[in-house]
Amino acid sequence: MVSSVGTYVDKFERMLEQYTGARHAVAVVNGTAGLHIALKLAGVMPGDEVLVPALTFVASANAVTYCGASPHFVDSEEATLGIDPDKLREYLKNTTEQRSGACFNKKTGKVIRVILPMHTFGHPVRLEELLKVARDFYINLVEDAAESIGSLYHDKHTGTFGLLGVLSFNGNKTITTGGGGAILTNNRELAQKAKHLTTTAKIPHAWDYRHDEIGYNYRLPNLNAALGCAQLEHLPGFLESKRRLYHLYQAAFQGFIGGDLFSEPAGCQSNFWLQTLILNNEHKKELEPILAKVHEEKFLARPAWTPLNQLAPFQHFPSMDLQTTENLAQRILNLPSSTCLGPKD
Ligand SMILES: *Cc1c(COP(=O)(O)O)cnc(C)c1O
After folding, report:
1. Do 260 and 159 have their domain in common?
2. Does the CB atom of residue 53 touch ligand 1 within 6 A?
3. Is the separation of the CB atoms in 228 and 76 below 8 Å?
4. Is 151 in the pocket of ligand 1 (CB under 6 A)?
5. pLDDT in tens, 118-170
6. CB of 105 closer than 6 A to ligand 1?
7. Is ligand 1 within 6 A of the CB of residue 168?
8. Is 78's pLDDT higher than 80?
9. Which residues is 217 bridged to in the sheet?
10. Which of 201, 232, 263 is the last residue of a domain?
11. Residues 239, 227 share a domain
12. 227 and 241 both lie in a single domain
């Protein structure tokens, strides 16, 4: 069985549960599809708003629009490169009201249903503070953990703190299934619904084709799941290599005055998916020339994503002041991060 059904999907899901500590894992065709379904299951309905960092990959915001909802962009912080919980709390205090167990945006009148923090380049956000904000303002929390397999916050795997969490196994991520993803949750009912919705909402039956709602063909093919099982066995080794590379860069940039190598936030264990140099404010004009030079030397290096609020399809969506995001986006340089790199490179 190469597709649709087969034993590797189940095996991969059980292995993911064991590795992450999530009670349930549902494998899906890619991380974006996982986000779509996770947001839907967290209650996101057409017309709602979802708080999304502007400093993230476009998939986070795309998935929100697939639910008919609006991304509402929030600022990140220097300490984690993820959502700033203190700034978010102040913002929500001033711009929302809580009624009948929901959070209403006073300006748009819409319900803010979910906060979608993302663990940038594998570095965990301040989950404890964000979970408190979510609770205090009656908002659900879903983690975009697409970049953070192997990253721990206070010794617990990222993606297992929110109501749901989503991993990606795209080709550029720490482990890959070619393309793939998984929805994590500790809630059995949500896990069953995730499985149902991602497999065309078919009622299990030996021969009957009956579907009890509009579902999606978001299942991970068996072939890709087999690759996932093998990749998970290598994950501890990959994480070691990534950490070793971080220490190599740390030694190489000792005494460098142009910026700082980004280290894992306090109390966290990062997977160091992408190694990150953050230029000082005085040196941010040098980002473009550095990128040009590095590419000329045939090394892969990249800047951060263009903040999503600046992209044409997202310019008209609500947003808080994004000062830190806009500044960070001009200073972030991701260095070559392959697990194959060593001292000779
Ligand atoms: C990779 C990634 C995704 C999407 O994952 P795909 O598997 O490529 O669909 C979502 N969010 C973030 C932050 C990512 O880096």
Report:
1. no
2. no
3. no
4. no
5. 999 999 999 999 999 999 999 999 999 999 999 999 999 999 999 999 999 99
6. no
7. yes
8. yes
9. 199
10. 232
11. no
12. no
Is a pLDDT exceeding 70 seen at residue 4?
no
- Give me the domain span that covers residue 246: 235-307+328-335
The alpha carbons of the chain give a radius of gyration, in whole angstroms, of 20
* Structural domain contains residue 127: yes
Q: Is 158 in the pocket of ligand 1 (CB under 6 A)?
A: no
Distance of CA 29 from the midpoint of ligand 1 (Å): 12
Kindly state whether residues 243 and 146 are assigned to the same domain: no
176 and 293 housed in the same domain: no
Residue 333 phi, psi (nearest 5): -130, 115
pTM of the model: 0.97
Q: Which atom of ligand 1 is the closest one to the Cα of 34?
A: 9
Q: Which residue has the least CA distance to atom 14 on ligand 1?
A: 146
What is the distance in A from the centroid of ligand 1 to the CA of 6?
25
Distance CA 78, CA 210 (A): 51
The Å distance, Cα 344 to ligand 1 centre, comes to: 31
Q: Which of 90, 135, 93 is nearest to 115 (CA)?
A: 135
Can you tell me the mean pLDDT for 264-272?
95
273-305 pLDDT, tens digit each: 999 999 999 999 999 999 999 999 998 899 999
Same domain, 102 and 246: no
Rounded Cα–Cα distance for residues 76 and 54 (Å): 8
Spacing, Cα 330 to ligand 1 middle (Å): 22
Nearest atom in ligand 1 to 56's CA: 13
- Tokens coding 237: 């080794």
